Structures are given as structure tokens and as C-alpha cells.
């Protein structure tokens, strides 16, 4: 059975310059599209991929990624904002790789555009009052 799934891959620093993802094609018969990639020098790398192929190849490919030390997150997870906690400080605006936070110029409030969110979790650590929460 053919599948096509979106996943977020978190690469620890030691793996950032390794050709890990290309082996999905060569060794596991899978196709992938890179939907988003973000690498910071001092932290980890993050990549949002759409992976397609046969279910058994997908399962093997995901196991291979996990064995190398990549943390894999399915996009079924949802990040939401606890409106009561948000102080509209703006710390999340530049952190978000997809532009899911927007400054409303007239009110100076920060809007959270949930439909743009890829659940990468970067804002969860960056938000001073811990207003961003991960839900399953
Ligand atoms: S960092 Fe947190 S408190 Fe600040 S605007 Fe973003 S969600 Fe709100
Ligand atoms: S989890 Fe936060 S930083 Fe990541 S895409 Fe969603 S809103 Fe942006």
C-alpha cells in the first residue's frame, strides 16, 4: 500500500551535515519533498518532509532515521496558544520558520495563525511565559 506522510525531523547537532535524508531514496525506495528546512549553528536542524512510498519501505525508512538519532514527529501533533498566558511580547515572531506569528500594527498584539503552524515546537521553548503548548 502506498502512503504519503508529513513528518518533522529534528537533527541533533552532530548529524546536521550528514547525508541522512538522501539515503531514504537510495536504500529505502522512498521519495521525499522538503517542505521546510531550518538549521541554526548552535542548536539542531529541523526539516519538514513529505515522504512517499510503500508502507513497508516507509516503516523501514522511519526506523532507520530513528536509529541514527533523528527525532521524528508526526504532523498530527498540534501546537496551540494559551491566550490567557500570552503577553504579546513578540519573542516568537522571528523564531517561527513558517511565519505563523504576525504583529497587528494597530494594536501591537501578536496574532497566531494556526493554519501556518507545522508543530516544530521552536516557539514552545522560546516563549517566556510558556503560552505555547503541544497537544496530541
Ligand atoms: S513569545 Fe509567547 S508570550 Fe510572547 S507573543 Fe509569542 S506566544 Fe505570546
Ligand atoms: S510550533 Fe511554533 S515556531 Fe513552530 S511552526 Fe508552529 S508556531 Fe511556528
Keywords:
binds iron/sulfur cluster, 3 helices, 36% strand, alpha+beta, 136 residues
Number of strands: 8
Structural classification: alpha+beta
Estimate what percentage of residues fall within beta strands. 35-45%
Helix fraction? Answer: 10-25%
Order of helices and strands: EHEEHEEEEHE
Number of helices: 3
How would you describe this structure to a colleague?
This protein has 136 residues and is an alpha+beta fold. It has three helices and eight strands; from the N terminus they run βαββαββββαβ. The chain has helices spanning 23-26, 55-68, 122-126, and strands at residues 2-11, 31-39, 45-54, 71-74, 78-81, 101-104, 109-112, 132-135. The strands form three sheets. The chain has a four-stranded antiparallel beta sheet with strand order 2-3-1-4. Strands 5-8 form a two-stranded antiparallel sheet. Strand 6 and strand 7 form a beta hairpin. The longest helix has 14 residues, at 55-68. It is elongated and about 50 Å long. The protein starts with a strand and ends with a strand. The mean pLDDT is 88. One iron/sulfur cluster (SF4) binds at residues 81, 86-92, 110, 127, 129, 131-132.
Amino acid at each position: 500500500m502506498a502512503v504519503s506522510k508529513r513528518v518533522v525531523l529534528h537533527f541533533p547537532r552532530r548529524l546536521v551535515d550528514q547525508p541522512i535524508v538522501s539515503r531514504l531514496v537510495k536504500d529505502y525506495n522512498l521519495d521525499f519533498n522538503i517542505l521546510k528546512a531550518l538549521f541554526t549553528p548552535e542548536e539542531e536542524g529541523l526539516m519538514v518532509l513529505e515522504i512517499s512510498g510503500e508502507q513497508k519501505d516507509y516503516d523501514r525508512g522511519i526506523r532507520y532515521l530513528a536509529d541514527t538519532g533523528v527525532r521524528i514527529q508526526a504532523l498530527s501533533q498540534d501546537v496551540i496558544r494559551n491566550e490567557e498566558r500570552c503577553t504579546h511580547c513578540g519573542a516568537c515572531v522571528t523564531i517561527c520558520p513558517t511565519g505563523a506569528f504576525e504583529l497587528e500594527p494597530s494594536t501591537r498584539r501578536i496574532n497566531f495563525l494556526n493554519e501556518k503552524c507545522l508543530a516544530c515546537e521552536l516557539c514552545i521553548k522560546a516563549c517566556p511565559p510558556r503560552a505555547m503548548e503541544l497537544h496530541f
